[in-house]
């Protein structure tokens, strides 16, 4: 298998595409909105912004750097039993939430746990 020589006969002309414009939102927040030809706007909800900040705050960068270094040094150890225990605990918690949710739906309380 070799590389074929490229000739101008094989090249197609590409038409430029419009790039969406960014503008400040009308409510004055610092999050830009995308404007297309139909003036549709996309805005990240305050809840999504809060969750993103919470996720960023929960990352332990020092721990991440230590793990990266251990992987690079080939000294990173995986504790399969610890991982299995954590997966089990998460599965049990998920099942508890699902059971509670089903119970709430059965009893007419659909607002609990996002039911």
How would you describe this structure to a colleague?
There is one protein chain. The protein is mostly helical. It contains 3 helices and 2 strands; from the N terminus they run E-E-H-H-H. It has helices spanning 46-57, 61-72, 80-106; strands at 21-23, 33-35. The longest helix has 27 residues, at 80-106.
Question: Which terms summarize this structure?
Answer:
single chain; 115 residues; mainly alpha; two-stranded antiparallel ribbon; 2 strands; 5% strand; flat
Summarize the structure.
With 115 residues, the protein is mainly alpha-helical.
Q: Spatial order of the strands in the main sheet?
A: 1-2
- Distance between the ends: 57 Å
Label the structural class.
mainly alpha
Total strands: 2
Q: Please give the count of helices.
A: 3
Secondary-structure element sequence?
EEHHH
The largest sheet is:
2 strands, antiparallel
Shape: flat
How much of the residues is beta strand, in percent?
Answer: 5-15%
* Overall pLDDT level: 76
From the alpha carbons, calculate the radius of gyration and give it in angstroms.
26 Å
Low-confidence stretches: none
What is the percent of helical residues? 40-55%
